[in-house]
């Protein structure tokens, strides 16, 4: 079985140690480095249909397979926490952008979400679904809050902060507040209601929040990114 080490506090990365014949797959955009002994291949895992479904979730069409022996390092694109989730037959529904990598026994699929959850939560009509057996690694944006719900216990999570939840939980979307909240409080109007039993992962930061916070510090007229001198 591959060995893992999560390093750091608020800006984390994870080391993966693969023995000969061991395999993982992940998002190449999160791969920092690998030793030369690790064989890397880009594949359309799950066939054309599986790749198309991943594209619908906002994930990558192709995934990168890494075969041992050797070491590889993965990290998220924002400050935050890396979460190791042993699936053991349990499915996880998650934002596709949180995916780092998974063991070979994990299936990366998608699931039709309730229409309002998909649109209002910013994930289109589909959410990423991970199921099977093996370890899954996802990363939060900012701080991470984990909530275990007892049977019948209900919480409401602002839609853009919902990172992942266990498959089989009942969920729906509802509007909280009114027009005044939207115009003056700048709060999201839509909350995802989840009912236990099950575990929910919530991240404290969204990509939109980070981008908004950085805009005042960008040079006038510059939208970010590297600008070549003229």
Automatic annotation (TrEMBL):
<protein>
    <submittedName>
        <fullName>TIGR00266 family protein</fullName>
    </submittedName>
</protein>
<dbReference type="Pfam" id="PF01987">
    <property type="entry name" value="AIM24"/>
</dbReference>
<dbReference type="InterPro" id="IPR016031">
    <property type="entry name" value="Trp_RNA-bd_attenuator-like_dom"/>
</dbReference>
<dbReference type="InterPro" id="IPR036983">
    <property type="entry name" value="AIM24_sf"/>
</dbReference>
<dbReference type="InterPro" id="IPR002838">
    <property type="entry name" value="AIM24"/>
</dbReference>
């Amino acid at each position: 079985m591959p060995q893992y080490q999560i390093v750091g506090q608020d800006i984390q990365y994870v080391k993966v140690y693969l023995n000969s014949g061991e395999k993982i797959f992940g998002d190449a955009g999160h791969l920092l480095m690998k030793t030369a002994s690790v064989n890397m291949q880009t594949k359309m895992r799950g066939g054309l249909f599986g790749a198309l479904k991943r594209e619908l979730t906002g994930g990558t069409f192709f995934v990168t397979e890494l075969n041992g022996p050797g070491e590889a390092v993965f990290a998220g694109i924002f400050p935050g926490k890396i979460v190791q989730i042993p699936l053991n037959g349990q499915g996880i529904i998650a934002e596709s952008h949180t995916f780092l990598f998974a063991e070979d026994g994990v299936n990366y699929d998608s699931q039709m979400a309730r229409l309002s959850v998909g649109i209002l939560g910013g994930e289109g009509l589909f959410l990423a679904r991970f199921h099977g057996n093996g370890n899954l690694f996802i990363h939060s944006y900012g701080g991470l809050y984990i909530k275990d719900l007892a049977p019948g216990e209900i919480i409401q999570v602002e839609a853009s902060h919902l990172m992942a939840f266990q498959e089989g939980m009942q969920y729906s979307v509802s509007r909280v507040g009114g027009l005044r909240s939207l115009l003056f409080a700048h709060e999201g109007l839509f909350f995802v209601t989840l009912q236990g039993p099950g575990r929910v992962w919530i991240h404290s930061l969204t990509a939109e929040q980070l981008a908004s916070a950085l805009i005042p510090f960008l040079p006038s007229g510059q939208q970010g990114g590297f600008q070549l001198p003229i």
